[in-house]
Design goal:
By secondary structure, the chain is α/β, with parallel strands linked by helices. It is 38% helix and 15% strand. It is built from 12 helices and 8 strands.
Length: 318
């Protein structure tokens, strides 16, 4: 019996050490860590990082675009699209979800209610009046959709880039890896397999002059890994935000007749292009633009093509 107890203690220690190695040096994010170009907005769930981009005064059309990023990559993924929008007269607001980028990492459930609430809180905090154009990438698609469903009177259009919500399973995620305690251990100890090492994207390089290629992408992505709570926010999102089946929401939003534009890569291996057919069934009036050689990373690998297509759509709705 004594040997069994010793064996269990040793085994637990062996399991705990790699977890400790991965988490001991993580620090709590504070306002001194955020880039000087942006700021924190104090919302109901904590401080969220945001940044404004403005057109030249003489070119302003008075309308606002809010860019909503995806599951793990924060707002830097929008870098290649912003000038395109500003040059056409739009004000552009970008932000990092709680738990990502330079936003705080509150210890709460990362469910659809949180993501919609934080978007609503930020719009209110920034004093944005009237309707806004929402652009959602991957997980940002369902967030935009749920927001539009609840706040129809504040939504002028939706532009969805490879939106989640029609998958059978989430790549790399098994049911046992999200169980309490086991999930926290696995996602920290094996985070190199989940994110941050090697290629994060399906394509390593793009000849688009506005693209973010792999070396720059990883440099920016890895900055958020220095702070406590990033891994927990991803794990909590998988546990509490159903990103696999959002058909009910998309159908309801489809009935609201909100102008909707969809951009998808033909070779998307994360959210398959075939899902565009499901989306079209839910939102029959949506317009689909397909990038023939595009994968899931089109937002930052083919930003010129993506930005031009969305920009042309938005200009017709101003």
């Amino acid at each position: 019996m004594e040997w069994l107890l010793i064996t269990i203690v040793v085994l637990l220690a062996v399991l705990y050490l790699p977890y400790l190695f991965k988490t001991a040096r993580l620090k709590k994010i504070n306002i001194s860590n955020i880039p000087k170009e942006g700021d924190w907005a104090n919302l109901s769930d904590g401080n969220i990082f945001y940044r404004w981009f403005h057109p030249k005064k003489e070119h302003s059309n008075g309308e606002t675009i809010v860019l909503v990023h995806g599951f793990s990559t924060p707002s830097f993924v929008w870098g290649g699209l912003i000038d395109n929008f500003c040059d056409s007269g739009f004000k552009v607001l970008v932000y990092d979800h709680f738990g990502r980028g330079f936003s705080e990492r509150p210890g709460i459930n990362y469910d659809k209610v949180l993501y919609v609430r934080s978007l609503k809180d930020l719009i209110d905090d920034q004093g944005i009046e009237g309707k806004v154009h929402l652009v959602g990438y991957s997980m940002g698609g369902p967030i935009v959709g749920y927001f539009a469903e609840k706040y129809f009177d504040q939504t002028k259009s939706m532009s969805l880039i490879a939106p989640a919500g029609f998958q059978q399973a989430m790549s790399g995620v098994n049911s046992w890896t999200i169980k309490p305690i086991i999930g926290e251990w696995f996602w920290h100890v094996f985070n190199n397999r989940i994110y941050g090492v090697g290629r994060m994207s399906e394509t390593a390089y793009s000849d688009d002059p506005l693209s973010i290629n792999e070396e720059e992408f990883l440099e920016n992505f890895n900055k958020q890994l220095a702070f406590k709570g990033f891994t927990e926010s991803l794990l909590s999102t998988v546990r509490h935000f159903n990103l696999l089946d959002c058909r009910r929401m998309y159908k309801d939003v489809g009935n609201l007749d909100i102008p909707t534009f969809v951009v998808w890569g033909k070779n998307d291996g994360v959210v398959p292009h075939s899902s565009s057919e499901n989306l079209k069934e839910c939102i029959p009036h949506s317009e689909l633009f397909t990038i023939e050689e595009g994968t899931h990373d089109i937002t930052y690998r083919q930003p010129t093509e993506v930005g031009k297509a969305i920009n042309e759509f938005l200009l017709k709705k101003t």
